[in-house]
Amino acid sequence: MNRTTRCLGIRSLLLATVVASVIACSSESSDWELAQQKGSVEALHDFLKRYPEGQFRHPATEKIEDLEFALATAAGSAAALDEFIAAHQAGRHAPDAKRQRDELLSKSAYRWKSPFTFPRGASGISVTGSKEGLSIRCGAVKLIVPESADPNHDVLVYKNIRHEPNPLRMTVNLKGIVIRVDPLTGDLYHDAVAEIKGETCSIPARYSLGGRLRQPGLMDIYPDARNSKGVSIDVDSEIGFTKFAGLKFKQPAIVKISDDGLVIADRPDLTTEDHNGRIWRSVAVADHHLLVSASP
After folding, report:
1. What is the DSSP string of 53-91?
2. Under 8 Å between Cβ of 275 and 245
3. Count of beta carbons in the 10 Å neighbourhood of residue 75
4. Cα–Cα dist 21/32, whole Å
5. What pTM did the predictor assign?
6. Rounded CA gap, 68 and 46, in Å?
7. For residue 190, what is the enclosing H or E element?
8. Which of 14, 166, 183, 240 stands the most exposed, by the fewest C-beta atoms within 10 Å?
9. How far apart are CA 125 and CA 202, in angstroms?
10. Rounded CA separation 49/81 (Å)
């Protein structure tokens, strides 16, 4: 083979390579145009399977994320957004997906509907369910309070308090005096906002100043009032649960209750049950662990 023949062979090979490249690029471009025209996630995934390292892989990947984000948003469920976040953790839409997911979970999270409000809720106390009622510790003070339903509200209130030691130290805020009606007797009586207070703990209460039928000095307490914080929930193995904020806690936890009734736990995967048997499980929402329904 002379020099001229070799040169012609090389030129032919180069020409064939260029032609093949042009054909391949033309094919990829036409397939990309077709995938865009179809405009579906499936079509774009099929395109990427054919051209995983092609020149259109980045716009194809971005288009898939755009479409899947739109689908997850349209679904309007935290589960759909969780699935999207798992698939696109570093994606452009991940921050918006997390924000939408947290907003949905916050709106549907369990809220304690206690109608009672106080300047501040309980703090630094520990509560344990028992056969006698709710056992509450506030520093050196121990309270045993039987629960009873308030006919005016679908909540539990705690009356007939037995406490140790005796007498119980208590501060009374006389600025909060109001006239109330006893739901059982219809008696009008005066009561004032009160507080059982220790060095590092407190419990809001109502202190009766007396009425026609109601004796002065009686006190109702609200360990699960809104704005409570740092409440340690323990579980007595004998009964297996502690009632708090309208829920049965079957595992120890530290909780707080926001001003709008959100029950915030200190950890994920905490399982509770409301009075209808509905299961609520704590999940991470933004910087908190909120109770979200786990029942169908």
Report:
1. TSTTHHHHHHHHHHHHHHHHHHHT-HHHHHHHHHH-TTS
2. no
3. 13
4. 16
5. 0.73
6. 15
7. strand 188-197
8. 166
9. 7
10. 25
